Amino acid sequence: MPRLSEVTAALDALWPPALAEGWDAVGTVAGDPDAEVGRVLFAVDPVQEIVDEAVKLGADLLVTHHPLYLRGTTTVAADTFKGRVVHTLIKNDIGLHVAHTNADRADPGVSDALAGALDVRVVRPLVPDPADPAGRRGLGRICELEHPLTLRELAGRAADRLPATAQGIRVAGDLDSTIRTIAVSGGSGDSLFADVRAAGVDAFLTADLRHHPASEAREHAPLALLDAAHWATEWPWCELAAAQLDEISDRHGWGLRVHVSRTVTDPWTAHAASNPAPLSTFGAPN
Ligand SMILES: [Zn+2]
After folding, report:
1. Which of the chain's ends, N or C, has fewer CB atoms near its CB within 10 Å?
2. Which UniProt keywords apply (predicted)?
3. What domains are defined for the chain?
4. Distance (Å, rounded) from C-alpha 164 to C-alpha 149?
């Protein structure tokens, strides 16, 4: 069995930590570099439910997309929820390793996995990494559809192919408009509107779109918007990452058992559709 340090070195080669944003906190959060690793679990969020799943599975390493601590802390006491996560990991000899914005920027990265889930062909990064001469690394991806779809059909495809969440897919735009090109970005994407506009695509699929950036983008140009749950846009990367580690394990004869958590950790748990009746105010008589 490989040691944790060998596995994390292989993960760092896939998603070089130097690609991470300056504010990010990536790399190994918990774990003894000399500990042996036989079973690995991939997930989006390092929350207690996921750590409990890792314990049940007998995992030696949990790899998550989101960091446990993004800022400094002065306590890992188990009466804080993050401290409890740390205690559970250490008591059960489970390492935690994070690949966040380095996995966003990598080739292949989080948005490649999202494009793969949507079955659209990646053309180039939305925001290319100037340090990559091949022009494949960067944030988001610009993609082409094999056959044009209406926005209605594309939204249906996103709802079918991304993992199910309470939110589903929010859509802005003419449902009968034709979509040939789409920008995709896993996670919160509303800081990328200027790049999306410059790319001249027909649609943008991301998560966490806020009122003002979305409204202004719609006023600027006839851009269709598809807003999925944050977790759902990043989960496809877990499957891609697990396949990548599986392949490395085979190449080295490590015999790793690699798993992907199917637990939905999107914080939103229900969606109440609005009443389709005409707008009325505060129970005014009709
Ligand atoms: Zn995210």
Report:
1. C
2. Metal-binding
3. 4-103+237-260 (3.40.1390.30), 107-228 (3.40.1390.30)
4. 21
